[in-house]
Write a structure and sequence with these properties.
The protein is of the alpha+beta class and 335 residues long. It is built from twelve helices and six strands. The protein has three domains: 36 residues; 101 residues; 167 residues, NADH Oxidase, CATH 3.40.109.10. The structure holds flavin mononucleotide.
C-alpha cells in the first residue's frame, strides 16, 4: 500500500532512518542482556556465574601448576585459591551439586595443587585454611583426576589423525621449543584456515604475524594473558576488517567470523605440528590503543584474539582443562 503512494527514493530514505533509529536500542539491548546474566565484576549472582568463576580460578591454578622446573613458583596462587574457595561456596549456596563437572574439576585442581606442594615438601596448612573446614572435607572426599595438569606427547607425524582425533588432541600449549616458526609454515596454516566460512563470503579476517622478540614481549605485557611464561617466538593477531560490514545488525559478526577463522587456524597449526595458545583480546581503551599502535593495526580493524605460536616441545605439560559432557551442551528441542 505504502509502496504505491510513496516514491521509492523516499521509501529507501525512511528505511534508512528507521535502521539508524534502531542502532542505540540494539546496542543497549545487547548490554542489558549481558548485564542481567553475567557476574557483576566477579561477584556471582546465579549458578552460571559461580561455575564460570570456578572455571576461571581452576584454570589459573592449572596454568601455575603447568610451569615446570625453575619456572614453578611454590606457594603461588593465594588470590586464586581464595577466590576459588568463594566461588565453590557460592556454587553450593546457589543450589549447585557436588557432582557437577566444574565443581569436581575445581576440587580436583585444589587436590592436585596440595599434592604437588606436599611432594615438594612445602607446607600447605595456610592454603588449606583458605577453605572452610566442611568445604575442605568435601574437596578431599572427591576422588577425581579431572583437575590439575597433564603431560602431552607430540603426535607421531607418521600416523595421520582423523578430524575427531585432531580436535580431541589439540591443546593450548604455553611453552615453546627453541627456534623460530618457518614463514612457509605460517603461510601454510593461513592457507588452510582461509577456507573458513564467513557471512556472505565477505572474508573480513586478517592475520598479522610478528616475530620480533622485543615487540612480542611488550605486546604480551599489555595483553596480560601469558604472565609468568616465556614469550613465544611468533605472535599472531587475528583481526576483522570492519569495512566488510554494512548494517548495525551485523555489529557482532566481526567476532563471529573472526572466531571461526581463529579456530580453523588453531587446528591448522596443530595439524602442522606447531604449539599454539589462543590469547584473549578483552582490552580496555588503553590496551586497545597501545596495542594497535605497537602492532600497526589499522583503526578499521577490531582485535578478535592473539595466538602464541612456536615449535612444539615434546613432551609438554598443560592444564587439563576438563570439558563438560555432551548433555551440558546439547539441547535437543521438541524430542
Ligand atoms: C578466545 C580465547 C582467549 C584465550 N585467552 C587466553 C589467555 O589470555 N591466556 C591463556 O593462557 N590462555 C587463553 N586461552 C586458552 C584457554 O585457556 C584454553 O583454550 C582453555 O582452557 C581450553 O584448553 P585447551 O585449549 O587446552 O583445550 C584463550 C582461549 C580462547 C578461546
Amino acid at each position: 500500500m505504502l509502496s504505491r503512494v510513496v516514491p521509492a527514493p523516499v521509501r529507501r530514505r525512511l528505511r534508512s532512518l528507521q535502521a539508524r533509529a534502531q542502532r542505540p536500542g540494539l546496542v543497549l539491548g545487547d548490554w542489558r542482556r549481558y548485564r542481567q546474566a553475567a557476574a557483576a565484576e566477579m561477584v556471582p549472582r546465579n549458578p552460571g556465574n559461580a561455575r564460570a568463576l570456578m572455571a576461571f580460578f581452576s584454570h589459573s591454578l592449572q596454568k601455575g601448576l603447568s610451569r615446570q622446573g625453575d619456572e614453578f613458583r611454590p606457594g603461588f596462587g593465594v588470590a586464586a585459591l581464595t577466590a576459588l574457595s568463594s566461588a565453590m561456596q557460592a556454587w553450593l549456596r546457589l543450589g549447585g551439586g557436588q557432582d557437577d563437572t566444574f565443581f569436581v574439576e575445581a576440587a580436583s585442581t585444589v587436590n592436585a595443587y596440595l599434592a604437588r606442594h606436599q611432594a615438594l615438601g612445602v607446607a600447605t596448612g595456610d592454603k588449606e585454611g583458605l577453605f572452610p573446614p566442611d568445604l575442605l572435607a568435601t574437596i578431599r572426599s572427591i576422588d577425581s583426576d579431572l583437575g590439575g595438569v597433564k603431560t602431552v606427547a607430540a603426535p607421531p607425524s607418521s600416523e595421520p589423525r582423523d578430524f575427531a582425533q585432531l580436535a580431541a588432541g589439540r591443546v593450548s600449549i604455553r611453552h615453546f621449543g627453541p627456534g623460530q616458526v618457518d614463514r612457509d609454515r605460517l603461510t601454510q596454516a593461513v592457507d588452510i584456515a582461509r577456507h573458513t566460512p564467513s557471512v556472505c563470503n565477505r572474508q573480513p579476517v586478517r592475520v598479522h604475524a610478528y616475530q620480533d622478540a622485543a615487540l612480542i614481549e611488550t605486546a604480551l605485557r599489555l595483553q596480560g594473558g601469558l604472565t609468568g611464561f616465556a614469550s613465544p617466538p611468533t605472535l599472531l593477531a587475528v583481526t576483522a576488517d570492519l569495512t566488510a560490514f554494512v548494517a548495525a545488525t551485523e555489529r557482532n559478526e566481526p567476532y563471529v567470523d573472526g572466531g571461526l577463522f581463529a579456530m580453523s587456524l588453531l587446528y591448522a597449526l596443530e595439524h602442522l605440528g606447531l604449539a599454539a595458545c589462543p590469547l584473549n583480546a578483552m582490552f580496555n581503551h588503553h590496551q586497545d590503543k597501545a596495542l594497535r599502535q605497537l602492532l600497526d593495526i589499522p583503526k578499521t580493524e577490531c582485535f578478535v584474539m592473539f595466538i602464541a605460536v612456536g615449535p612444539r616441545p615434546d613432551p609438554v605439560v598443560v592444564p587439563k582443562s576438563a570439558r563438560q559432557p555432551v548433555d551440558g551442551v546439547l539441547r535437543i528441542h521438541g524430542a
